[in-house]
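The instructor's notes for this session suggest beginning with a concrete chain rather than abstract definitions. Hand out the sequence below and ask the class to guess, before any prediction is shown, which regions might be ordered.
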Amino acid sequence: MTEEQAGPRNVDPPEKFASNANVSDPFVYEAADKDYEGFWADRARELHWFKEWDTTLNWSPPEAEWFVGGRTNVAYNCLDHQVEQGRGDKTALVWEGDEPSDSKTYTYSELLAEVQKFANVLKSLGAERGKPVSIYMPMIPELPVAMLACARIGAPHSIVFGAFSASALRDRINDCEATILVTADAAPRGGKATPLKANADEALEDTPSIENVVVVRRTGDDAPLTEGRDHYYDELMKDAEAECPAEEMDSEDLLFILYSSGSTGKPKGIVHTTGGYLTHVNATMKWTFDIKDDDVYWCTADIGWITGHSYLVYGPLSVGATTVQFEGTPAYPASDRWWDVIERNKVTILYTAPTAIRSFMKGGKEDLEKHDLTSLRLLGTVGEPINPRAWEWYHDNVGGGRCPIVDTWWQTETGGHMITPLPGITSTKPGSATRPFPGIDAGLFDEEGNEIEGEGSGNLVIKKPWPGMLRTLYKDPERYRETYWEKYGDVYFVGDGARRDEDGYYWITGRIDDVMNVSGHRISTAEVESALVGHEAVAESAVIGRNDEDKGQAIVAYVILEGDREGSDDLIQELNQQVRKVIGAHARPEEIIFAPDLPKTRSGKIMRRILRGVAEGQQDLGDTSTLADPSVVDSLQASRTNGS
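After discussion, reveal the predicted structure:
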């Protein structure tokens, strides 16, 4: 085992931090193991319930119901309950716009007032309990307002990341059959603007379920309205009623649908419900982030992804925290933008992706040294495994050697943290997510379904249900069973490989299916392949993720052209535009290799291991004897060497 794999050192919590930590007794693990249902019931009782549950858990694999019979409301917990506890004048949300001159703050009382009015707007447009609302927005305050308004009236929201294309938006709207779309004229980022309304209009040419569109004026860009269907947000809010009672939702009522890339290419509509999900994100906010009443907490994720749902909006607001929402990029208008945000707002907790950390490493310490970052007391990472060198740099330079790091492993499907340090009691190892959160029962299985005991490597699984778990895939319960439960039966198959060391610490080794992790975004190989084959010049394509120091993985596409077509720089640009149009800019290949053929077994299966090896410049590609035509490998290596 190399030092890079194992991590160069153990890092204990600083004494001062540990003495004030929310969790200071390691016995919490043992107590949760003895009675995990009781553990989660105790966490749930920290929320507001209109009616407490009758049964903590009904488990009929793979169907789970948590806090059965309980009634609560997520928006009530995040807003009304906080005001009732005396936080009405406390800052709930700090918004930092793309330009440093754009900023805004909302107290809990102000955010509650906005949410109630917009909830009434949605109701006036036909929104109701159980009917999904699609949201396609920039990172502006109206986005969490829209989420919370949906939660208040029981209308499930389906948020589509603002960088997704018109066709990706169309597919997601049609799958959930939303009747309302909330969007904006444009989305500024890094000094440029994405024309959201124009993209939405293109999508809406083929979305028969949509009846009303709400448009926020973000940039003032021209955004033509379709009469009778489209409405400006500010005009609707002007006339909206101020009071909107929160619906008493059943614990298992649908809270949101979030589409995630799947290995078949068709996005999966991951379903999260109300009581269990909120219990999970609330508990992990308190325990993983050690959140205190005076903390200023910044999760840098976009709300279009699960991290933004759980740890920018619902988690922080449910514990009464001050949460920072950032619209811009790390390097605009200058490369020290993030450190400026931290210094001005006196941010105490920073939660970000290893991709960002590696990017800052490349730029050196000069930008950091321009700013006072001593307000920071805790750092976190999310989205992909962090390599030990980046962990060390983050700890020593951003945290000044005084801030514990919580390296969190979890998924869109899990709702909240699954494997993570508890910063007051965990001795961390750079590069390891350490131990399962209390009440989470993780394990390793081999391919045959045998459990691996003690130290070893295998497929990561979760052996017992947990409150934040997805309940199904929207309108596709069969795919839910096949994807997560068919391989091992009554245990949840994660889709990641992992190694467990002699101390029981987990080291995530990456995806074992055909989903790539690019800068923390999960992108299906099949989805990119489908986009490429949609171009008239492409006969076949195969996409892999190659290791990349900055992004975690970079997308490499092997393309076989139709007939006697030849590859060219112009065609590469066309293919990149094709992927951008069908999926979004974040899915464009880093490299496109025009190939005469693909390495396939005699049964026709593409050997992605070989494609990955070629992309990474490996000379020894292992056994190629099972290929139908082993000479294809030489051709691929020659194609890449020639840069064609």
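Then share the key points. The longest strand covers residues 538-548. DSSP finds 21 helices and 30 strands in the chain.
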